[in-house]
Amino acid sequence: MNDIFTSHLNGLPDWDMFQSALPPYSGFHAAARCISGGPVYITDTPGQHDLDLISQISALSPRGDTIALRPSLVGLPLEPFMGFNKNLLLKLGNFSGSRGGDSLLAVFNVSEKQNSEMLCADDFPGLVLGERYAIRSHTTGTVHRIHVQGSGSLILVTLPQYGWEVYTAVRVQEIKRRDASEPFLLGILGLVSAISGVSAVLSRSTTMGADHVTVKVSLKALGTLGLYISNLVLIDLSTLFITMSGNVIPFHTVRKSPRSKEVLEVDLEAAWKELGLSVGSSSEVDVEIYF
């Protein structure tokens, strides 16, 4: 709530440290730090760490540094005057990139029992009217596709006591190849291995060739890159050609997500290590996918 005031002072919010191995609140606090827009750091007892959770709040840079993936703005409550005893979910919004970029919505159950609520288009900061988006749930990996045409119920979220969820909304575009195949929708989800992984994306572009489509993504960190592809179930992965920094990545680092039939996952960190790559003049990771 202090961010409502300090967001006007050009200050960087500091939501303080937390312990990664302190259930049931550790994931709750980790998600809050990732949506905050400020630094993310822990104060664990030596030898007592939740390494899986730590891997979700950080990422490995190409230079080998562990970095936090901070959204572009300051995380703010969507309903700042909601009463603590109203038995509603607490929703915090943030954004990554400029207008038309990627929206982040964190939802927390601060009540003392299971709670449910419908999420609406207006809950996601920065969505553009008339555009289509893919919305991914971090904890479940499920994806919903929406067409923003004004307010309206989108997603039913049910959280247990101390439960949390972070949703990432990315714009999707229709890809029409020049052959006779059906068009499909494509969206860049960022690093799905991290809670705020979409903030690792520096740029993206799509080029239509004579007989193929090229998708280029530039990232500032390694992890599992996720792409929303509406017709992924029809695609044979052996027909894809994927390079990283100009090197063809190993086939076994690419898979269809076991949690969503429309998400392609590319393990960039494993491919980077297996290929023995190192940073050059730029510390960015450039990935190209050819359909």
Q: How would you characterize the overall build of this protein?
A:
There is one protein chain. By secondary structure, the protein is mostly beta strands. It folds into three domains: 2-67, no CATH class; 80-171, Immunoglobulin-like; 173-290, no CATH class. The chain has four helices and 20 strands. The protein has helices at 2-6, 26-36, 51-56, 268-275, and strands at 59-60, 66-67, 76-77, 90-96, 102-108, 115-120, 132-137, 143-147, 153-159, 164-171, 173-175, 184-191, 201-208, 213-219, 224-229, 241-244, 247-248, 254-256, 263-267, 285-290. A six-stranded antiparallel sheet has the order 3-4-5-10-7-8, covered by helices on one side. The longest helix has 11 residues, at 26-36. The relative contact order is 0.14.
Give the gist of this structure.
By secondary structure, the protein is mainly beta. It has helices at about 1-5, 25-35, 50-55, 270-275; strands spanning about 60, 65, 75, 90-95, 100-110, 115-120, 130-135, 145, 155-160, 165-170, 175, 185-190, 200-210, 215-220, 225-230, 240-245, 245-250, 255, 265, 285-290.
- The poorly predicted ranges are none
Estimate the helix proportion, in percent: 10-25%
The portion of residues forming beta strands comes to: 35-45%
- Radius of gyration, in Å, reads 19 Å
